[in-house]
From TrEMBL:
<dbReference type="GO" id="GO:0008757">
    <property type="term" value="F:S-adenosylmethionine-dependent methyltransferase activity"/>
</dbReference>
<dbReference type="Pfam" id="PF10294">
    <property type="entry name" value="Methyltransf_16"/>
</dbReference>
<dbReference type="GO" id="GO:0005737">
    <property type="term" value="C:cytoplasm"/>
</dbReference>
<protein>
    <submittedName>
        <fullName>Putative methyltransferase-domain-containing protein</fullName>
    </submittedName>
</protein>
<dbReference type="GO" id="GO:0032259">
    <property type="term" value="P:methylation"/>
</dbReference>
<dbReference type="InterPro" id="IPR019410">
    <property type="entry name" value="Methyltransf_16"/>
</dbReference>
<keyword id="KW-0489">Methyltransferase</keyword>
<dbReference type="InterPro" id="IPR029063">
    <property type="entry name" value="SAM-dependent_MTases_sf"/>
</dbReference>
<keyword id="KW-0808">Transferase</keyword>
Length: 314
């Protein structure tokens, strides 16, 4: 592998690790590569050095990943006189296994910061674009909302927006996201695509609190807002403290975004009523939806509803 490709594949592994991908999906270097001292050093510095990295994945996940890495390094040791495990990795391993670990269920229900990295190609030398969210992947069903994790549809929408064709929908625009969940798409747009303004909305108060916290963690300012909004009710933004002029300006958008909002046929009429409202009363010119095809019947209900709305109704 060329040095460029090696760097690219280590960057990919690091991005996957901070995104807390399941172990079987991690792209680990092969044994002959990972055993090299320079590669082990990069792995320590970019994945396990507690003094320099934040947010690190939870202890249980880190321990499982490091165990897999250490086994792979050991596979690569052909000359015990020459090849050895990096001392920082050994020290990290010793410290990790001595720490108490919550059960996988407890861990799955805790909030954890997750760092996502936008895709790059081997030829792009740009700095990584990252977004930090606050998630609890195990709270999905017990909490009564599905918004505590970032769903694949959001990742796909973020990936599309990271392309030059995608960015044109957001750059210089006023954007509103419906059912934003962790706020991943909105924060990516606000952080990297130079919009005028992005407003992330959801109906769940806890998600609003989490997004407000993530806003600070991503260093976002006035270009990004968070608001509670249940479809079918008045948009609770701007606040009562805003002057009338500011309020009018803030209630005007160019683009609406949504990811994974078509999973329940009961929600569709409300979603469509809300979209009509956005087009009719909030200046929205286009709606970009990213959907996961979990159930053909549900998705068909969505397509049918789209047919009913256009063009004679809109
Ligand atoms: C499957 S999650 C998708 C979250 C996020 N867009 C993603 O892709 O990661 C659906 C989101 O829609 C929100 N939601 C569902 N019904 C809603 C409603 N009537 N009004 C506002 N938000 C709603 C939920 O709270 C949840 O955050």
């Amino acid at each position: 592998m060329s040095p460029n490709n090696e760097i690219h594949s280590l960057k990919k592994l690091t991005a996957q690790y901070f995104q807390q991908l399941d172990l079987p999906h991690l792209s680990l270097p092969n044994a002959a590569t990972i055993v090299r001292p320079d590669i082990q050093c990069v792995i320590y510095e970019h994945m396990f050095n507690e003094a320099a990295l934040w947010p690190l994945p939870p202890v249980g996940y880190r321990t499982r990943v490091l165990k897999t890495i250490v086994s792979r390094i050991e596979e690569g040791i052909t000359d015990p006189e020459e090849d050895e495990l990096n001392s920082d990795l050994i020290e990290t391993w010793t410290s990790l296994i001595s720490l108490p670990k919550p059960s996988q269920i407890q861990q799955a229900q805790k909030l954890t910061y997750i760092k996502y990295t936008a895709p790059t190609t081997t030829t792009t030398a740009q700095d990584s674009q990252t977004v930090i969210t606050s998630e609890s992947r195990g709270l999905i069903y017990s909490s009564g909302t599905t918004g505590f994790r970032t769903w694949e549809a959001s990742l796909h929408l973020g990936t599309y927006l990271s392309t030059s064709a995608g960015a044109t929908h957001v750059t210089g625009k006023r954007v509103i996201e419906l059912g934003a969940g962790t706020g991943f798409v909105s924060m990516y747009a606000a952080k990297y695509l130079r919009p005028q303004f992005v407003l992330a909305t959801d109906r769940e108060g806890t998600l609003i609190e989490n997004m407000t916290d993530s806003k600070a963690k991503n260093g976002l300012g006035r270009e990004f807002g968070v608001s509670a909004w249940e479809w079918g009710t008045p948009l609770g933004y701007p606040t009562e403290d805003d002057t009338e002029d500011i309020a009018r300006e803030r209630l005007c958008f160019d683009v609406a975004l949504g990811a994974d909002l078509t999973y329940d046929t009961d929600l569709l009429p409300l979603l469509f009523a809300t979209l009509h409202d956005l087009f009719d009363n909030y200046g929205v010119q286009e709606f970009i939806l990213s959907a996961t095809l979990r159930n053909q019947k549900t998705f068909q209900a969505f397509l049918d509803a789209c047919g009913m709305c256009s063009p004679q109704d809109s």
